[in-house]
Amino acid sequence: MAEIKQKIRIATVQVGNVLANVEKNLNKHYEYIEKAIADGADVVVFPELSITGYSLKDAVYDVALTIDDRRFDRLKELSKKVSILIGAVELNERFEIYNSALWFEDGRLLTRHRKVYLPTYGLFEEKRYFSAGNRFRAFDSKLGRFGLLICEDMWHPTSGIILAQDGASVIFVMSAGIARGIGGDDKPQNIRIWETLNVALAVSTTSFIVFVNRVGVEDGLMFWGGSEVIDPHGDRITKTEYFQEGYHLAEIDLLKLKHARINTTLLSDEKLNVLIEEFDRIEKQRREY
Fold first, then answer.
1. Coiled-coil regions in this chain (predicted)?
2. Is it the case that residue 1 has pLDDT exceeding 50?
3. What CATH number does residue 91 fall under?
């Protein structure tokens, strides 16, 4: 593997989608990817289900793509100039359908993450249409060792902890966050909660968090944007506007990660054996009920 870069330039793109129109959404992706290449970005990141839209329901069967689908060919070609993270509906060889994050790099699909936690409550009904992923794994890019989460995955703190313990220095969070609730600071309650979670995960794992959320309206649902990049101390490096399509270029310095992890040894102090034993005990108790 090539020497890891100390500074990484990340283009975050919070787009709206044309629901269930893969071709139109891909064309918008190409425009932003070309912009990111022109700006000298190392990686460009899009939201959850960025090439399909979110409120798909039975249309998931029409937009599901296998990982070798020819419609990914141009993304693979562009990934020779910049690493690319998109959201897609993935169809596997057993005809199971996943809400997936796909990372393209150096002309190929380098890795993927299948959403583990599928919200099925209130406005959400993902378990009706998607199979659940079953792992959180960090991966090696030419830029560093990273982790991927999709929306609800982030609301379970253990997800990010696993990735950080697996060596991830940057955790990319792709979301299709819906504005809900009434907040006390002129923004919906769940926006405030999301932003708190992002900072908390950055600090508790001493990692960079790259959160990219979509915008637009689908089936009466409003997506709030507000994408942000947060450093391991919990400070925001960039913040994109709410409710507007937006593009930001952020530079992260991995030297800051080194300083954070030396000064705050949360990861190295973690007692994994205690966690394993206690989770095993709780899981056994639940099986007995």
1. none
2. no
3. 3.60.110.10
- The 10 Å Cβ neighbour count of residue 266 is 14
Distances (CA, A) of 137 to 33, 85, 145: 26, 16, 10
Give the rounded percent of residues in the chain with a pLDDT score beyond 90: 92
Cα–Cα distance for residue pair 48/177, rounded to 1 Å? 9
* Run of H or E residues at 45: strand 43-45
The pTM (predicted TM-score) of the whole model is 0.96
147 strand-pairing partners: 171
Residue-wise pLDDT for 207-251, tens only, equals: 999 999 999 999 889 999 999 999 999 999 999 999 999 999 999
Q: How far apart are CA 238 and CA 248, in angstroms?
A: 7
Name the residue range of residue 22's domain. 7-288
- Mean pLDDT calculated for residue range 173-200: 87
Cα(249)–Cα(35) distance, integer angstroms: 10
Q: Which two tokens stand for residue 240?
A: 């994109």
Q: Could you write out the three-class secondary structure of 226-268? A: CCEEECCCCCEEEECCECCCEEEEEEEEHHHHHHHHHHCCHHH
Question: Which region, left, alpha or beta, applies to residue 67 given φ > 0 means left and ψ of -120 to 50 means alpha?
Answer: alpha
- What 3-state DSSP class applies to 55? coil
Residue type, 238: T
How sure is the predictor about 182, in pLDDT bands with cuts at 50, 70 and 90?
Answer: low
| Residue 219 CB contacts under 8 Å (≥ 6 apart), including other chains | 19, 55
**Number of domains into which the chain is organized:** 1
Whether the predicted pLDDT of 43 surpasses 90:
yes
Cα(235)–Cα(202) distance, integer angstroms: 9
